[in-house]
């Protein structure tokens, strides 16, 4: 499971334009690492993207006997639903109950019983899915006991839940999450009195039943932890630094309430739509072409979903600032060529190619050349001049070429890599969608610029970098 943000999917996450449905994930400039999908709703799932399938406990939080759509929620029911809705590699969450109301002990027992049954069913019926169980407790020490119990059952993906109700208690929540993470992952992290000070603000419930299962040592360095429902930039920055994943739906709630996000440094500020200036972000530019205005309220669902897409785009863009990404630059092998074999970086000598080359070499990052003949070329590789352009390829040939390019790039890059395209549309159109479907981030900094404007942009960027070096 990748670290980072998993937005929550709603019932109908799309905008409608000219009779067609456009999913909001197709509007985004960047894709999140994955999505969270609840069994409480039936929504269209993002294709070829990592999905966390949640049991929907927030929807039955007020029920002592958990039900969804008239069905009792337990390990057997959820495994059946996950078989219908999940794919190989997805995360499937064990049914759990929030510790609220009067019957806390019964809810605790339910959580532990379901966890024991669920992992056995997952191994038998969904061996290619990843089971995750959620840590609940009314004190930090109780949460640590639950974490130990779940590790003993064999879980290696643990969720931390039940903290949304006190989301404003940032220091308390972060203390709980940091302590659980440190104790689970580090063999030297004992549970000292200083680590459980939060018990004074989180009253402890009754003793933890163990259901007769042997308790394993509380240490698993490869365990992955996921935080449910906390996703403000302040939390997000801390979680990314700690190597956690997290989810949230604030972008939906604010959008439905008529609020638009604007970004300020590492913060997201909510402003009423009637006060919002016209936005020129990627999503809003696309929406404008479809005559959808996210600033409009009470004018139909389409404008509201546009606002939600805008909010999500800003959320993802803000969170990306917290994760320094290694970049791989891609340059189009086009324009004039030498008449004899040479290193690929020298073979193409047009002004545009050499400007892109200077720019990427200044970044001191890996870069490759995209070629209609050779697909992906190392700049140092010796190749012969050739006469082939993407315009000479048929539509089917271009799709096949894009698949070959994407496969070659995936082989040389981890999923944490960001691909930066300094290419024309034909060199990237199909490639970017394939990379994004495989979880890679893509960026096109000169997307809407003509050739002359691209040269001017590169020149300006190089001058700024040179000035920065001089200033330092």
UniProtKB/TrEMBL annotation:
One Pfam family from the record: DUF6884
GO annotation terms (biological process): tRNA modification
Coiled coil: none
InterPro entries found in the cross-reference section: DUF6884, TGT-like_sf
Positions of the DUF6884 domain: 328-460
Name of the protein in its database record: DUF6884 domain-containing protein
Organism of origin: Nostoc sphaeroides CCNUC1
């Amino acid at each position: 499971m990748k670290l980072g943000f998993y937005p929550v999917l709603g019932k109908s996450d799309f905008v409608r334009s000219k009779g067609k449905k456009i999913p909001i994930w197709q509007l985004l400039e960047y894709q999140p690492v994955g999505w969270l999908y609840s069994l409480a709703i039936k929504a269209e799932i993002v294709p070829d993207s990592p999905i966390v399938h949640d049991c929907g406990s927030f929807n039955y939080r007020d029920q002592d006997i958990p039900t969804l759509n008239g069905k009792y929620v337990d390990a057997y029911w959820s495994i059946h639903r996950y078989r219908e809705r999940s794919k190989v590699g997805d995360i499937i969450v064990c049914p759990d109950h929030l510790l609220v109301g009067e019957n806390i002990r019964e809810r605790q027992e339910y959580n532990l019983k379901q966890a024991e049954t669920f992992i056995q069913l997952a191994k038998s019926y969904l061996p290619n899915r990843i089971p995750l169980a959620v840590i609940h407790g009314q004190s930090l020490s109780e949460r640590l006991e639950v974490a130990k119990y779940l590790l003993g059952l064999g879980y290696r993906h643990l969720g931390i839940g039940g903290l949304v109700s006190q989301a404003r208690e940032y220091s308390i929540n972060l203390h709980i999450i940091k302590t659980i993470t440190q104790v689970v992952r580090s063999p030297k992290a004992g549970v000292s009195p200083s680590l459980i000070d939060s018990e004074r603000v989180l009253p402890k419930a009754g003793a933890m039943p163990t259901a007769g299962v042997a308790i394993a040592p509380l240490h698993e360095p490869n365990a992955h932890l996921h935080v449910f429902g906390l996703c403000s930039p302040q939390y997000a920055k801390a979680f990314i630094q700690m190597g956690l994943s997290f989810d949230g739906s604030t972008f939906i709630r604010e959008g439905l309430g008529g609020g638009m996000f604007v970004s300020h440094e590492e913060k997201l500020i909510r402003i009423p739509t009637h006060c919002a200036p016209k936005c020129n972000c990627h999503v809003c530019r696309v929406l404008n072409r479809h005559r959808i205005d996210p600033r409009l309220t009470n004018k139909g669902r389409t404008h509201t979903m546009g606002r939600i897409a805008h909010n999500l785009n800003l959320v993802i863009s803000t969170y990306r600032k917290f994760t320094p990404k290694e970049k791989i630059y891609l340059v189009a092998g086009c324009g004039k060529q030498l008449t004899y074999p040479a290193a690929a970086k020298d073979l193409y000598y047009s002004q545009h190619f050499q400007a892109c080359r200077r720019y990427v070499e200044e970044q001191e990052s890996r870069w490759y050349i995209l070629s209609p003949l050779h697909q992906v070329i190392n700049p140092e590789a010796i190749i012969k001049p050739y006469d082939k352009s993407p315009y000479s390829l048929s539509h089917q040939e271009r799709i096949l070429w894009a698949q070959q390019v994407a496969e070659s790039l995936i082989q040389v890059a981890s999923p944490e890599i960001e691909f930066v395209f300094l290419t024309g549309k034909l060199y990237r159109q199909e490639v970017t969608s394939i990379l994004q479907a495989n979880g890679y981030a893509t960026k096109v900094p000169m997307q809407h610029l003509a050739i002359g404007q691209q040269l001017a942009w590169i020149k300006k960027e190089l001058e700024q970098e040179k000035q920065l070096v001089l200033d330092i």
